[in-house]
Amino acid sequence: MLSVVENGLDPQAAIPVIKKKLVGSVKALQKQHIISELEHLTFVNTDVGRCRAWLRLALNDGLMECYLKLLLQEQARLHEYYQPTALLRDAEEGEFLLSFLQGLTSLSFELSYKSAILNEWTLTPLALSGLCPLSELDPLSTSGAELQRKES
């Protein structure tokens, strides 16, 4: 899901500004106690870590579909920060993502969201979102065939 959110971010825009405004949008979707919990996690201390923790909490609480619907309704903001080819700007892709997430609501998740490992990006989600060339991936951790399947 994080790759979906990162897909098609406008490289010409200032990333810190985008992060701040997108985090503001996410905060607007949240109840205050969740925001407070995310901001006070002991081992999660980066914006990336808090975003990844938020995604895990959303899955744990069964609210990912709801949050994506709200995010997709922010078309003016999405147009401002995303390239025209971004998944979140494509209405058909947005509907596909929502239908995919509907299937997840019947599942129960208990994902950890308090780990320091959430603070750093790995290359795989960056490559899948188009922010890092596939050639930079470690060939021992991910094969090109696996990436090809995920892209189609």
TrEMBL record:
Domain RUN: 1-116
Matching SMART domains: RUN (SM00593)
Cross-referenced InterPro entries: Run_dom (IPR004012), Run_dom_sf (IPR037213)
Cited Pfam families: RUN (PF02759)
Entry-linked PROSITE patterns: RUN
Signal sequence extent: none
Database matches in PANTHER family: SORTING NEXIN 29, SORTING NEXIN-29-RELATED
Protein's name according to its UniProt entry: PLEKHM1 isoform 3
Organism: Pan troglodytes (Chimpanzee)
Phylogenetic classification of the source organism: Eukaryota, Metazoa, Chordata, Craniata, Vertebrata
